[in-house]
Each structure stands twice: as C-alpha cells, then as structure tokens.
Amino acid sequence: MSRQFEVEKARAEAVVSAGERRRAALAEIDEAKFSWFHAKACIVAGVGFFTDAYDIFSISIAATMIGYVYHSGGSNTTNQDLGIKVAHSIGTFFGQLLFGWLADHVGRKRMYGIELMIIIVGTLGQAVAGHAAGISIYGVMIMWRFIMGMGIGGDYPLSAVITSEFAARRIRGRMMTAVFASQGWGNLASAIVSVICIAAFKSQIHSQPITDMKAVDQVWRLIIGIGCVPACIALYFRLTIPETPRYTMDIERNIKQASQDVDTYLTSGTYVNDPIHNNERAELPKASWADFFRHFGQWRNGKVLLGTAWSWFALDIAFYGLGLNSTTILTTIGFGSSTALPTKQENIYQTLYNAAVGNIILAVGGLIPGYYFSFLFIDSWGRKPIQFMGFSILTALFVVMGFGYDKILSTGSGKKAFVFLYCMANLFQNFGPNTTTFVIPGEAFPTRYRSTAHGISAASGKLGAIVAQVGFSRLVNIGGKNKFLKHILEIFALFMLTGVFSTMLLPETKGRTLEDLSQESQDHFVHDTNVSPSTSPLQKGQGSDSNYAEEDPRLAVQV
To answer: What is the full DSSP assignment across 272-322?
Structure first.
C-alpha cells in the first residue's frame, strides 16, 4: 500500500509540476520584451509574404504581355485571361486547407519551408513555360500557377500561427501586421521590376514585328522569374526556425522541452532539441474530428470561425477583384492605354509602361500606407474597431465609385478623383479588414486547431477571390468592353456591408493571451499523465522507495 501511495503521490506532483511549468513558460513568452528573435521571426515570415504578393500581382501586367505575344499584338480571350489569373487562387485555396491541417498534425517547423520550395518550383516553371503545337502556353501557365498557389496557400496559416505563437501578448498584433505588410512591398516591387524590365527592352519592343514579339515574351518571363529570388534567400532561415513552444507543449505534449526552448531562444535566439532527457509527455486535450466538431459545435466557438471565414470571404471579393485586374481598371479609366502613337509597337510599349507606373502609384498611394496605419494602431485601438472602420468606409467608397462611375469619369479631373478613390479603397482595405482578417484567426483558436482554423478562414477568403475573378471576367464586358465595371463596384459595396455584420461575431483579441482567447479553462488543462503504476520503476522493482524519492517526480509523466 505504501508503494502504491508513493506512486500516486508522485503522479499528483508530476501533474502539478507539468501544469505549473507550462503556465510559467507561457507567461514568459507572453510578457517577453521585444528582442532580435522576434525581429528575425517577422523578417523570415515577411519575406515569404513579399514573395507571395510579388508572384500574385505580377500576373496582372504579365497577362497583358502574354496576350500581345501569343495573339500578335492582340489580347487574351476571356477564358485564357481568367485561367491564368484564377489558377493560383484555386491552388491557394487547397494549399491553405492542406497546410493548415498539416501544421496542426505534423508540426509548424516540419512544414515551414516546404511551401516556399513549392513556390520556387512553381515560379520557375512559369518563367520557362513553353508553347508548342501539342500544348498551349495557357495550359502550362495554369498548371504552374496552380502549383505555385499551393505553396502560397501554405504560407498563410504557417506564417500567421508561427508569428502569433512566438509573439509577446502586447506586441502580437504589430508582429503579425509587420509580416502581412510585406505584401504591400511585394506588390510595389512587382510594379518597379515591371517598369525597369519594360524600359530596358524599349528599343527591341519598338523594332520587333508584331508577329514575333520576342522582347515582350522575355520581359514577362523575367518579371515572373525574379519572384523566386527572395524565396530562395528566405528558404534556409525557414528550415532552421525552431518549433513554437505552444505546439511543443500542447500538441507534442513535451512541456519540459518547450520550457527549455523558451529559456534558450529568448536569450540567444537558438534552440537545442534534446529528445533523450526531454522525453516527458503530459496529458492534454488531443485533436480529433470528434473534438473538432465538439469544440466548434458550441456557438461561442463556432461563431468566431464563421466570423473570421465570412469576413475574409467578403473582403477578398473586392481585394482580388481589384488587385488582379488593376491594369484593366487603369486602362478603362484612361490611365494606361495608348493608341495615339505612330506604330502598334510604340503603343504596346507605352501601354505596358503606363500600366506598370500606375501600379506603383496604387501601391504607394494606398496599399503600403494602409498596412502601416494598421501597424500603428492595431495594438492600441484593437482589431475589431479597425475592421469595423475598414468595412464601413469601403462600403461608402464602392457606393460612390459604382453609382457615380459615369459622372466621375466624364471629365479629366473626375478621372483623377477616381484614381484617388481607388487608392483610398486600397488604403482602407489594408488599414482595415485585409490586415485584421489575417491577424484574428491566428489568435482566436486553441493551439491544436489554430492552424487548421486559420487555413479554413484563409481558404474562405480565397474562395471569395475565385468568385470575384470568375465573376469579374464573366460580367465586366456585358453591354460592351468593360461596360459592366460600374455595377461590379456596386456589388463590391454590398459584400463590404456584409463584412460589417460578420465582424460583430468576433472577439477583441488585443492584449489577451492566446490561451484566454481559446475559451478553454486553463486551470486543469494538464489533467492527467500517461504513466500507470504498472510501468513505474517501483512496480518494476528497478529501485527502492528512497532512491525513487530522489528522482524528479516529473519523470512520472515519462512515456
């Protein structure tokens, strides 16, 4: 009886020890001061989003060039243009779901970097895509952009969750926003590279015949191919980033290793995996389909997932509807197209150059400032106020741009005003729901489902992007070339209004710990151990009562 009593006592002490160690480690993460390790995590994750945005939005001008090359100075058909623009969104949709699930079941670290490899392969594949009698350039491009999209999709939940789980409570919003803001720089870089490449090939574009536009073909391949350079630079750092302590504690259930990781990387920025000595396993809630449906089947949890998913869906209807068609929109309002020059080749060059410059204006005038307004206010105002404000202002802007479309564009000054309103839409997408729909899903769910739920939310957004792209393609030319654009802007206004209501379902995550936001009691979260009396050293006769008492009682949780 005394031996049984000692075993039970050791087990009780082990549970207390594991639970207290977990709380101490989490408190150390949540209250840590900003350090080089935090900055490094933001940079490593941010370079991926820089690459994502570059690869996504470079297709806007590249698609126009492909039309010139493969249609002898003409343009892509509706289906061809739609295919090469929507393929990455479809790939991203599946990538977000797949990598979101894998990151919760295999590990954040094990998956981080794989998605970047996929992006690199997909980008290079596009740059060397060929055209022959038996295969169309469009089919090849669609395949490679789908593959690239799978990698981009994986980057969303992985980067969001890794940044969130490493971040201190007070600066978590700014760290996640800093990562996401890299999209703006990627968009700008895409436009700048386009201007440089187009200008570099000016004489060749002017001189080559319409039926053999080799220079334009080289330009679009160069623009897209350069997109893999930052990804290659970031790959090593992604492959060597440590596993997040929350994953190690709550999913691998190795609280001792996680505690050691916290102490090590917060001081030195490194970590040491010690599977021999750190092989304790605590008993915590495990992920399963039954537990997933139990957790999100409760309205207080399910409404959060519904709110994050619909908000992202509504936002991306407009964000990608505009972003992937910026060249079309700039041309429609007269900022980009050129038909007054003596030759077709000169008009093609000027149209491409103007469109690239226009994309720079849009990026500098709205996209990048919006991200950094969010950065400044997200940890003081909070996420919900910024998202409410963004959706409300976007509703008003799209109402004005849609219903006042004809009158605004009837004068030269009106066209300038339209460009200004377009920049303001970009500004309040990013100083609004485009940032917060990325941040909130990375905070609002339990560790065992955080990446999965972020993937579901992001995939909902990408579904919105697909709907927007297909809808834009099918609707924009109703009644004549680009005649339906004003009504598309009105449709965008309706979806922005629905985002106002879906925001009401979300919690305010500012300043709260991830464990508090999970809406799961932490008092008895570590509630049992895997050791049974029959497997303890005492039961096996491998030691006496006295020498077992000298052992660390936490060894009772050893597997």
So the answer is: ---TTT--B-EE-----HHHHHHHHHSHHHHHHHHHHHHHHHHHHHHHHHH
Q: Say which residue the tokens 């061809």 belong to.
A: 80
Residue 298, class by beta-carbon neighbours within 10 Å (0-12 exposed, 13-18 middle, 19+ buried)?
exposed
Place of tokens 């009158």: 407
- Tokens for 387? 């998202």
Look-up of token digits 């790959």: 235
When pLDDT is averaged across residues 80-107 and rounded to a whole number, the result is 92
- Return the exposure string of 5-22: e unless at least 16 CB atoms fall within 10 Å of the residue's CB, then b: ebbeebbeebbebbbebb
Report phi then psi at 513, rounded to 5: -75, 155
Q: Report the phi/psi class of residue 253: left, alpha or beta, with left for phi > 0 and alpha for psi in -120 to 50.
A: left
DSSP per-residue codes, 154-190? HHHHHHHHHHHHHS-GGGHHHHHHHHHHHHHHHHHHH
User: What is residue 529's DSSP assignment?
Assistant: E
Q: What is the pTM of this model?
A: 0.84
269's tokens: 């920025």
With contact defined as beta carbons under 8 Å apart, do 302 and 296 qualify?
yes
Condensed to tens digits (0 to 9), the pLDDT of residues 230-253 reads 889 888 888 888 888 888 888 887
Residues 347/341, Cβ–Cβ less than 8 Å: yes
Q: Which of 358, 490, 377 is nearest to 430 (CA)?
A: 377
- 403-408's contacts with Cβ under 8 Å and 24+ in sequence apart are 403/486, 403/490, 405/485, 405/486, 405/489, 406/486
